[in-house]
């Protein structure tokens, strides 16, 4: 599904590809900084203190989420400047891409880079040593991880639309809602290996965020019905 989003809505437009790659780069920088903080915290702590290590893990996840949202805001500010430049260069005084479209493409960029790193980690674990479920644990680790990766890609896309809309109209509660949803989805992964405890809430939040983003983008039930019936 994520590949379909790229092929059908982004791949044919050079400007959208540039925005997507820049968005992926911003997410990558946020990961680099959060990894650096995590590395320093682990090295400065006692590895034999299990409660402390668990606390550091929770801190690392939450700090990474907040840093990602901070870089999403920085990317929004950069795109606003880019729109001003595009308007100044255009002959008709109009931007070739709207802020809503930019939000969508930026969100896909964030999501694809997030998904790529998730899959790299999974493939590294798949090389061994060991066999999934050999000690009686769930054998659905890779399957559920794939579904979790997919939902995060879509969530990043919807979150970007909500986040940019909140910034545009100064609706700070929309930005807060995005941060809270991001923290909730990341926090739900601590329920693993009880995978239903993380997948079900994540997909429910995805449905909520998708509906919300659709309505904010100008969608309606009538438009959706016409689309399903292939009517103009």
UniProtKB/TrEMBL annotation:
Annotated localization: Membrane
Record-linked Pfam families: Aph-1
Give the record's membrane topology.
Answer: Multi-pass membrane protein
Query: What biological processes does GO assign it?
Result: Notch signaling pathway; protein processing
GO cellular component entries = gamma-secretase complex
The UniProt keywords, alphabetically, are: Membrane, Notch signaling pathway, Transmembrane, Transmembrane helix
State which residue ranges cross the membrane: 17-41, 56-75, 102-120, 140-163, 175-196, 202-230
Per the record, the similarity remark reads: Belongs to the APH-1 family.
Assembly and partners are described as: Component of the gamma-secretase complex.
Q: What does this protein do?
A: Potential subunit of the gamma-secretase complex, an endoprotease complex that catalyzes the intramembrane cleavage of integral proteins such as Notch receptors.
State what protein this is by name. Answer: Gamma-secretase subunit APH-1
Species, as recorded: Balaeniceps rex
Report the gene name. Aph1b
